[in-house]
Design goal:
Length: 427
């Protein structure tokens, strides 16, 4: 019988976590059909079946980390799962709504309070073939001894979240072996009790956070960073953006952000001088022909960097549309592997949080990253007169093995000239 193995879904992936099985043992599957969700180092991705057949056995339960190439399930002709199918026909599967899609792990629920068993002998297992939930929610459920079968999920698609499990636990009746569960208000903020074991709470790292921590540590240890900061007058850039968006309003096109203009400006600067568009490779440098700008996006799972490919060849409007789409999909964990690979330079913008200046860690194997702060009104002396101008501070982090200080300084001068004369960005 053929195995379903843990695939390589990104260029940096070393292992993956089965987030949820969308098929049950005994279900018929078709080649190309989505059978599971896999959490990689970059996103939550769908796993397609390699062959037609019957899902005979699940080898990796949700929440288990599996190295690339290791089997996670077995597909066969259905012989081995006939007994399981008979049981499902009279047992667990009977709890599913008659009109629920087969194998999607959905259970008929309504908004009425439900009873969830919880005992001191709770085994820690949960029916993950029925309840869709996050690995962290399952971990919390095991620790709190909450049976997830009847917990009402408020996450996307009815997925049970950490907060749902905690809500179920928090309303337990003293001395009772049951919990009365009422679907929590999605806008409510869960109140955290101080852990009995100490004044801290253990929070499991997502795969994205774990891999990011490893790679950023490696970047700081291996790449000798140096930093250059430039204060750029963006008064004209803001006015230019306002004129563009006035036109976009008239045509119905997507509005342009300051960050979209900065992506285009960086791409044009890299096209003018490719000395910064490089990667260090031991005894040589790789000078990239394409200009592919990564844009850091904060998500609940951690920092993701979708890539705007060939940014120098795209209009600002095209960059705006693509950036908005990929940022949304990044937060929803719907990015594909090719959305996040092949970057040659990254921009990290914290200006929306009021941060005026910071330094960023290089996103290896790239050799530079630009940290963008918030624009602030400052007084400047022009022609012996004090005037108010909007000033934006950007800081370049560069790998000194690949980029000399003078080369980086020249790039920053080119970028500053483009931003302060925004027509040059689009012409």
């Amino acid at each position: 019988m053929p195995d379903i193995i843990m695939p390589r879904l990104s260029d940096t992936m070393e292992d993956g976590v089965v987030s949820a099985w969308l098929k049950n043992v005994g279900d018929q599957i078709t080649r190309g059909e989505i059978v599971a969700e896999i959490e990689t180092d970059k996103a939550l991705m769908e796993l397609e079946a390699y062959d037609d057949g019957v899902l005979e056995k699940i080898l990796a339960e949700p929440g288990v980390r599996v190295p690339i190439g290791e089997p996670i399930a077995i597909v066969g002709d259905g012989t081995a799962s006939s007994e399981v199918s008979a049981v499902r026909g009279t047992g667990a599967a009977a709890t599913r709504s008659s009109d629920a899609p087969s194998g999607l792990g959905s259970t008929a629920r309504d908004a009425a309070p439900q009873r969830v068993s919880r005992s001191d002998t709770f085994s820690g297992s949960c029916r993950t073939d029925v309840v869709k939930s996050s690995p962290l929610a399952r971990k919390i459920a095991r620790e709190l001894r909450v049976d997830m079968d009847s917990v009402v999920g408020t996450g996307p698609g009815g997925r049970v979240t950490k907060r749902d499990v905690e809500a179920a636990h928090s309303v337990a009746e003293p001395g009772s072996s049951t919990v009365i569960v009422t679907p929590p208000d999605a806008s409510a903020v869960a109140v955290q009790d101080v852990p009995a074991s100490g004044e801290f709470e253990e929070v499991a790292l997502t795969t994205v956070q774990r891999v990011s921590a490893t790679r950023l540590t490696e970047s700081m240890q291996q790449a000798p960073h140096f930093y250059l900061t430039s204060a750029i007058d963006v008064t004209e850039l803001f006015a230019f953006r306002a004129r563009i968006n006035a036109t976009q309003d008239a045509t119905g096109d997507s509005k342009v952000s300051v960050n979209d203009l900065l992506v285009k400006a960086v791409a044009v600067a890299l096209r003018k001088d490719s000395s910064v568009n490089v990667s260090y490779a031991g005894d040589k440098l790789l000078r990239h022909k394409g200009i592919h700008i990564g844009v850091a996006v904060a998500t609940p799972a951690g920092l993701l960097v979708p890539v705007i490919r060939d940014a120098d060849r795209k209009s600002v409007s095209e960059i705006a549309t693509e950036s908005r789409d990929k940022a949304t999909r990044a937060r929803d964990r719907k990015l594909r592997a090719d959305d996040m690979t092949g970057g040659t330079f990254t921009i990290s913008n914290l200006g929306m949080f009021g941060i005026e200046q910071f330094t960023a860690v290089i996103n290896s194997p790239e050799s530079a990253i630009l940290a963008v702060g918030a624009a602030a009104d400052e007084l400047r002396l022009e022609n012996d007169e004090v005037v108010a101008r909007k000033i934006l501070r950007v800081t370049l982090s560069a790998d000194h093995r690949a980029i000399d200080g003078a080369v980086a300084a020249q790039f920053m001068a080119t970028l500053k000239g483009l931003i302060e004369n925004p027509l040059r960005i689009v012409t």
